[in-house]
Design a protein that fits this description.
Layout: E1 9-15, H1 21-26, H2 34-41, E2 43-47, H3 57-67, E3 75-79, E4 82-83, H4 102-112, E5 115-119, H5 121-125, E6 138-139, E7 143-144, E8 147-148, E9 165-167, H6 174-185, H7 201-204, H8 215-219, E10 286-287, E11 290-291, H9 300-312, H10 316-322
Parallel strand pairs: 1-2, 1-3, 3-5, 5-9
Antiparallel strand pairs: 4-6, 7-8, 10-11
Helix pairs in contact: 2-6
């Protein structure tokens, strides 16, 4: 890596229409922790709603100094969706003490920042906040669900020619954030390092399926039938791990966990529109008994043929364990002759 600039990068973290879960996740960053990483990468945290002592008039003064260019803004991180309601006024969410819509502050600051990062699927695409009839008129910074646009418009580029960097997830893995910030700090994040949805490819070029502890059950289509079962959750339980772009099962959460390892089906939370699947998250929709959502890059005919062969060859051990909440039949040991 090239040396980081002597001048620290000023980072401002704002929250809008969201739950704060991405910040809570970020605080669990390990190897190094968040503050150690900021220091080593030359990042100066100007303000964070959960971590900074400054509040009220002090924050407003900081924002005004950024707008007037008295304080340089290198990285703007937004957590939570942009709230535009009611009727496009933005008045559902005003920055206390200013009377101005948070939407307007976000846009002003984004136009001044060297880089803009959407932290979490809400900031990236609208996310959970935009679900249902979306009365708050929530959107992402550069997307409204799967449609380009959002607050900043589809043609937005930062000072280095990058679009909004969408670290999508609900919540994000802490290392997705810290890794991206380090890449920016050392000038190593280029347009080619982002996928078609603006997600950093360092995690989005992987599938949640990779490293899943249920992969042996998947190979033989030995499927779970209820939440406590050990089997593969794709066929009946709504799991989208074979389609979801993330490295959750190889870059574990808190060093040892993931949704699937905790017994929960992957809901593909890094994708735009994940919050509106059109069916219950824990149910796999099918046509003629075939799941609608097939693994990435697999033609339907291939899946049907392979699934039939796999089911016919399923060992008794996997059949029984797939519908149990603990291992009933252990692997057979080979007897020495």
């Amino acid at each position: 890596m090239s040396e980081c600039k002597a001048q620290p990068l000023n980072l401002l973290w704002l929250q809008s229409g969201g739950c704060g879960g991405c910040s809570l996740s970020l605080l669990c960053a390990e190897g190094p922790d968040m503050m150690t990483l900021f220091e080593s990468a030359g990042i100066n945290l100007l303000w964070h709603p959960s971590l900074s002592e400054a509040s009220g008039s002090e924050l407003i003064e900081l924002l005004e100094n950024i707008v007037s260019k008295k304080v340089r803004l290198d990285i703007l991180c937004l957590e939570g969706s942009v709230v535009r309601g009611p009727n496009g006024s933005g008045l559902f969410h005003r920055l206390s003490g200013t009377g101005k819509p948070m939407r307007d502050w976000i846009e002003k600051l984004a136009r001044l920042a060297k880089h803009v990062i959407a932290v979490g699927s809400c900031a990236a695409y609208g996310g959970i906040t935009a679900a249902g009839s979306n009365p708050s008129e929530a959107c992402g910074l550069q997307y409204e669900d799967q449609m380009p646009g959002g607050l900043l418009g589809s043609d937005y580029q930062d000072k280095k020619g990058l679009p909004v960097i969408n670290i999508a997830g609900c919540p994000v893995h802490p290392n997705w954030v810290t890794e991206t910030l380090v890449q920016l700090a050392f000038g190593e994040l280029q347009a080619d390092d982002l996928d078609e949805w603006g997600r950093p490819r360092s995690y989005a070029d992987h599938l949640v399926h990779h490293g899943c502890t249920r992969n042996e059950f998947y190979e033989y289509k030995a499927s779970a039938e209820k939440p406590s079962d050990l089997g593969c959750m794709m066929e009946h339980m709504g799991c989208l791990g074979t389609q979801a772009h993330a490295d959750c099962n190889t870059r574990l959460w808190n060093g040892e966990g993931s949704c699937l390892r905790g017994g929960y089906a992957c809901v593909n939370c890094t994708a735009p529109g994940f919050e509106e699947p059109g069916h219950a998250f824990t149910r796999t929709p099918k046509i003629a008994g075939i799941p609608i959502g097939l693994p990435t890059d697999m033609p339907k005919a291939w899946f049907v043929a392979l699934a039939s062969l796999s089911k016919a060859a399923t060992p008794t051990r996997l059949k029984e364990n797939a519908v149990a909440d603990h291992i009933r039949v252990p692997p057979t040991s080979r007897v020495k002759k």
